[in-house]
Amino acid sequence: MNMKKLSCIRSLLFLCMVLGTKAAAQPVHPPAPHPRLHRESMNYSGRKMPRHAESFSAIGVKIENGSNDMIAISVFFNDILDTNSIRGDSILINGAELPPGTEFIFSKTRQMMRISIPRTAAPHAAGSTFSLTLGGIRSFDGRAIKAEELHELSAGTFFKYSRKEQAWQKSSL
Questions:
Q1: Dist CA 149 CA 171 (whole Å)
Q2: Hey, how many other C-beta atoms are within 10 angstroms of the C-beta on 85?
Q3: Cα 104 from Cα 117, distance rounded (Å)
Q4: Burial of 13: CB neighbours in 10 Å, binned 0-12, 13-18, 19+
Q5: pTM value?
Q6: Cα–Cα distance for residue pair 58/101, rounded to 1 Å
Q7: What is the CA radius of gyration of the chain?
Q8: What is the pLDDT along the chain (173 residues), one digit of tens a residue?
């Protein structure tokens, strides 16, 4: 029996020596990065969304008379908006935070945000023009919006951003 144990031990030592020399003889390479870590898209709300290199910005603002004594401000974005990034100081009217009773509605694609402001609580209740400031809003992949301030807004106007002229242009609806 001692011979069997000795033979078994010798076989195991030989096997370990052979395996050890093969592993030592091979060059050691760092593990390759996972192919999904540096991809051009990411999952957002259960959808595969492409990442964009351009800056996140508003591309259009539309002012309308809403129902039930409300003024509706629709803001259009060039990418998907992170709805959780909207705070009290993200959107200002005439330099002040939005009034109580303000309602937000987001499009299914989250590239449009509609803000309904009570006409009685808004600083522009008399029908005069007002200013709108956007800032601190983020896209779905974390890019911050380029801060924008629009002046002379009133119901029935539409502003769109012209990349060619690098400025906002006013038009009527």
A1: 17
A2: 15
A3: 9
A4: exposed
A5: 0.68
A6: 24
A7: 30
A8: 576 776 767 776 666 666 665 544 555 666 665 454 445 766 666 666 766 667 888 889 998 887 778 889 999 998 889 999 988 889 998 888 888 888 899 999 899 999 998 876 555 444 568 888 999 999 888 889 888 888 888 888 888 887 766 777 777 55
